[in-house]
């Protein structure tokens, strides 16, 4: 066997699986599987298969319409399409929980344990830019890749938080239509994929994880609206973290029920018989009733499917009393803020900020901070159109102009911006966000991203962000450059190099732009999909791709 498994784990699985144990253990000698999920915010699965050099050699993941198996030697994470956010690398069985969550465009969705964001980007694809995704993780360092993956995927309607579930209850009680609890777990399903999980199995003991999961679920229940659905998932086989956890939850929360899942695709039903010993503190008959419900949950086994292993339970909060917070009132309050303050919501000093990965300021090499310690991860606008149709240079500085005016001017002059839903401008220090309308105040929470970070204002200048570039389509930029994904210019751009181009290569959405005189922002694209910003002048493109986004 290539993986050396913990003895205790092997003994326990032998007892549980009995006749199936040999097949289970033999699956550890099979090669690991590789999966990616196409990002429907940017491209359809069919279009991607046509476009990608590896599209023809992939096979569909049966339970995920955008999921594909690929050959390990293909290394899609190194291809420019990855840097354009066309797909996310994800283990195939990890694609199942979001498929079970039944997310519809317009829903309010919480991904409570979200980093590094695989399932959050999948949820965002289901929302199609409509509704709200609140994506949260309590580990601060893990929210950096989380925010980056949300931005890379071009998600416009997400808020990224760094909170304990209990803290979310004060702001979001009963607010969400859908909640995913992809719980921290002992990771037994990851042993074949990642040998480090074998080492950390002891420290992430099953008992320790099951206590954490119990607390997380308890608070998640408070956050869900009546009639809403919650999917609980783990990538482990231990019944204490799966059926037993769900039985305990049902006993504590009689207002919840299991929505049985059809065990298709080689998935199997939950195993109530592995959790039927009555938990101390619970009445035996009641325990048995709740345990029986867990038959409607599902297990994904590596010896029965092409995937590493997962567990998922779909839970519904029974429709009952209205959520404590009136949904219409929230929308009306937000609409009032939009109308009265010209669509502006400004920062509240109580709002705690945990944002921003370090990024070099690209003007003169100095690090620039917003007034609360955040750093602007973006570049500086120098040119643009004046009014619709004309394309003259913007004055580089407008002393006294409000950030929202500078943004709106940038948008009207440099973008042909398609709103997918009403958004409100949210200002935090020098940073400008677009936030889905109807969000409650985030005051008192640790906020990593208050919405779609579109840029920043410093010294009278609006600077578009990398997140803005990634959330646009090529057609939404007034001026762009585009090469086939395998063109050397694309690789130069991704390495952070300056590019030299002919004025004729500029692609303009506005016929009045004089290419030989143009100076200003261009959206750099590969195969028509944005990679980031450049600033063009006289045949030279200054590279504005932030350091953390470059391909090494
Ligand atoms: C299995 S991972 C999530 C993977 C993620 N859903 C994805 O698909 O990329 C579990 C996550 O839970 C987070 N976590 C652990 N305890 C937590 C808590 N009390 N509240 C919120 N998140 C927590 C961990 O930091 C970890 O990132």
TrEMBL record:
S-adenosyl-L-methionine binds at residues 113-119, 137, 182. Residues 347-374 have a biased composition (Basic and acidic residues). The keyword RNA-binding applies. Residues 24-318 form the SAM-dependent MTase RsmB/NOP-type domain. The active site is at 235 (nucleophile). One of its GO terms (biological process) is RNA methylation. It holds the Pfam family RsmF_methylt_CI. Belongs to the class I-like SAM-binding methyltransferase superfamily. RsmB/NOP family. This is rRNA cytosine-C5-methyltransferase. It comes from Paenibacillus protaetiae.
